[in-house]
Specification:
With 225 residues, the chain is mainly alpha-helical. Helices cover 74% and strands 4% of the residues. The chain has helices spanning 2-6, 10-35, 40-65, 73-92, 95-98, 102-125, 128-131, 136-165, 186-212, and strands at residues 69-70, 173-174, 177-178, 223-224. The strands form two sheets. The protein has a two-stranded antiparallel ribbon. A two-stranded antiparallel ribbon has the order 2-3. Strand 2 and strand 3 form a beta hairpin. Helix 2 packs antiparallel against helix 3 (40-65) and helix 3 (40-65) packs antiparallel against helix 4 (73-92). The two termini are 15 Å apart.
Amino acid sequence: MAKRTQNWRWVDWVYVFTIASHLLYIGIALEEMLNHPDQNAGLAFTMVQVVGGLVIATLPIILERFMRYRFPEILYAVYLVFIYCSILLGTGLHFYSQIYYWDKFLHILSAGLLAGLGYTIFSALISSHLRQTISPLLMSIFAATFGSTIGVFWEFYEFTGDRVLGLNMQRFMANGHLLRGQAALVDTMGDLLADVVGSILIAIIGYFCIKHNREWLNKLTFTKK
């Protein structure tokens, strides 16, 4: 533990902030449950999701213990920011219902994260020599496609949850009433558009950064411990 403390990266502080924020919320929620027992059901469900956020935020650290490599710092940081914004702010502090476009913002953020992961995967699949000569356009197309495709699969997941469990993740209902026509498609199409925008945005940035300096790609590659 002492050795790891001496070699802390800047992203480790982002992790500490994320975990501390989640723990603070859990402490406040527990106090609220004790003071207002009538609200226990809703608070308990939300708190379970926040606890899940702790596990999800720690998952990359657990995986790294069984790997010879570390995840790219910038991707891990964006990953933590996404968890903070989606679980703690979105679910815990109800940003989803209070800020109209919060969900779309998170789709753009997650798609950008996945596009960055696309660069990481592409780099891991080719040799270091080929990485210095391969077309930046090809890598960027792969990154944009990867990010957008995962967004499509996420909509499949939401549709399955709505169909099987009777949820409303794709917002096909409003106030308990079924929406019709394009009104029922607005949320899903907006999510897909946000996924494409986020993926293409990172792909464009990646293209010009790689074209200007190939060493930029090192920021999105696995590093040895």
